[in-house]
Backbone:
């Protein structure tokens, strides 16, 4: 079953604008990750946020996590044409406070950045 | 490191034929995952291994699918007999052990695009 669900399914923006993607999940987690997939390629890890963290930055990426709402957002600032890709959130399952190596991926948000 | 290596990159076969997909994980990684990606169902975990031992194969769709990991540097996913509904992109991913700074992060291969006619 799908743990993470991204919203929106597709997003089209102009270069230079910010892109925000959201992810909702259902069960307790140990951490949440975001991955990017370029067309025809494998997924690439972007950032991991632990359940005791609320916000994390990496370059132009900003991730927030709200465990009370079981939701996360990924913000890409000053977007570039090269950011065009699908973005997936992935959650592990939390068993008695320990994490799981098994991840469940959402269906992704397809981002198009128009030059 | 060359990253996760998968072969073949593309496979076209006829219904009923046996298909074998191959994966070489990143050296030193002790977790290996097989996924299937389709437009309808997204990315589905089929099976994963830890130290060459299958841990969870509940995602394997049916008995036609089997996976092995004979050693730390090689894994196969076999479909026998193949059916048109098996057409998808199959990904292999690997993860390093704890304490490496990349806990729980999965490194994906480029995938094998399988078409069953």
Residues:
């Amino acid at each position: 079953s799908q743990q993470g669900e991204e919203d929106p399914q597709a997003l089209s923006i102009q270069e230079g604008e910010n892109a925000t993607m959201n992810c909702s999940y259902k069960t307790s987690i140990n951490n949440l990750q975001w991955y990017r997939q370029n067309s025809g390629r494998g997924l690439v890890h972007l950032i991991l946020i632990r359940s005791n963290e609320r916000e994390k930055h990496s370059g132009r990426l900003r991730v927030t996590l709200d465990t009370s709402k079981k939701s996360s957002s990924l913000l890409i600032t000053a977007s570039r044409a090269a950011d065009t890709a699908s973005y997936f959130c992935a959650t592990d399952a939390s068993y008695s406070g320990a994490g799981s190596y098994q991840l469940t991926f959402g269906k992704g948000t397809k981002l198009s950045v128009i030059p | 490191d060359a990253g996760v290596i998968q072969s073949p990159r593309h496979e076209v076969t006829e219904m009923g034929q046996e298909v074998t997909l191959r994966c070489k994980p990143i050296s030193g990684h002790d977790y290996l995952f097989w996924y299937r990606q389709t437009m309808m169902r997204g990315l589905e975990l089929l099976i994963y291994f830890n130290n060459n031992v299958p841990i969870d194969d509940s995602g394997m769709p049916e008995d036609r699918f089997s996976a092995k990991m004979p050693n730390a540097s090689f894994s196969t996913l076999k479909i026998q007999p193949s059916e048109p509904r098996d057409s998808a992109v199959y990904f292999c991913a690997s993860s390093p052990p704890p304490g490496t700074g990349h806990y729980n992060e999965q490194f994906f291969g480029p995938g094998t695009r399988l078409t069953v006619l």
About this structure: The two ends of chain A are 37 Å apart (CA to CA). Residues 20 and 77 of chain A are 9 Å apart (CA to CA).
